[in-house]
Amino acid sequence: MTDLTEQTKLPRGTGYLPPMIANVDDTGLSLLWLQELALKIMYFQGYLTGFKVAEELALPFTGVTDQILEALKREKLIEIKTSQMGLGEGSYQYAITGAGITRAREALERSQYAGPAPVPLAIYNDAIHNQNRNRIVVTPRTMRQLLSELVISEDTFKLLGPALNSGTSIFLYGPPGNGKSSIAHAFGNLIMSQNMYIPYALYLDGLVVKLFDSASHKLVPEEDTTPKGTGSVKTATRRDPRWVKIQRPFIVTGGELTLEGLDLVFDDIHKYYEAPFQVKANGGTLLIDDFGRQLVRPRDLLNRWIVPLESRVDYLTLHTGRKVEIPFDVLVVFATNLPPKDLVDEAFLRRLRHKIEIGDPSYEGYREIFRRVAQAKKVQYDDEVLAYLLQEWYIKRNRKLRASHPRDLCDQILDIAGYMSTKPVLSREMIDQAAQSYFVEL
Questions:
Q1: The pairing of beta strand 285-288 with beta strand 331-336
Q2: Which of these, 9, 79, 171, 329, has the minimum number of CB atoms within 10 Å of its CB?
Q3: What is the pTM of this model?
Q4: Which domains does the chain have, with CATH numbers?
Q5: Residue 138: Cβ-neighbour burial (10 angstroms; 0-12, 13-18, 19+)
Q6: Per residue in 213-271, pLDDT tens?
Q7: Angle between helices 180-191 and 154-166 (to 10 degrees)
């Protein structure tokens, strides 16, 4: 993927930096809650230095973790096992006591979360709003670079730029194989050229919502001049270490999407929540691919999106029944091969900002796609043979052109040439054999 940030001078960052933490109050969490989190970590991991506890908590040692450990020592829940003179309290090795094990087990009955300290929801909400003020705004030049690998009609191209700039919702529809998913992925790649900060986890009513997901979020390396294992904030960035720097997310979901997957998922065994797709995608892009192929009825799924799409705010439900408000700063792209009339009604279409049909390519567009694909796959191209393909296998058979056909037919030619130990060329013989193997009369 071309680095559009460099070519168009787009900003990589958002100008936002999670503020430093100087003491326990700055975390927004109670000392008692943090003590229990530290005890659970030590219960699972055994002997840990003070710096290692700070690293596991994702909190500074000085002013925060040292206070947590001091409180636990006073209550005889942990004890110092070894110490190294001259290296400070952070190098002391701590062990959990019998009383600490009992307290840890009591805490584990309420929640088995034992990871980085979470960030209160209100702080997260403010951070998302602050970071989305500097989202990328594209120009026609940027769009030409972004979609340079795709062959798109000029009429369609003119609609895509404003849709991307809206940062709200796009409904891409049309026959299969014409590039809807490719366009959405190009949008996602551009948005991912910017970075943002998200916390590892959120704090809600004493419970934790895991937010950072290594499968959904790509970490961005940060300069770190702090010696490894010190557990203090990075001296290069001087920020709250409960947050991680990531590329703006691009999350894809398809037929596996359910109504339950759009709400907080509570783990009854471990007793903490997993953030839903749209929360993990906050600040980035959420592609709902193959819309209409989900197990849940499309209208039920769409009704779930009405309020977030209009108000840019989502309401999630805790297992206690309480609803919480969370930002919905997501570019949502619906991509479907099904006719819109079979999926949505006029009321819902009104709430989707941009509706764009991605139609079949023209004959000239098909030719350009085939030429590019053949060149990329090292298949010898011939205009006369392509004309033969169009006449014999499309026009005579009343077959629709699809943007994906050139790629698939070239792959067929490569398979044939490999089997026959011949050079892959666009010849009538190879086209006929490839087409016979590829096309199915329906």
A1: parallel
A2: 9
A3: 0.85
A4: 30-114 (1.10.10.10), 132-357 (3.40.50.300), 363-438 (1.10.8)
A5: buried
A6: 999 999 998 865 444 444 444 444 589 999 999 999 999 998 888 888 889 989 889 99
A7: 40
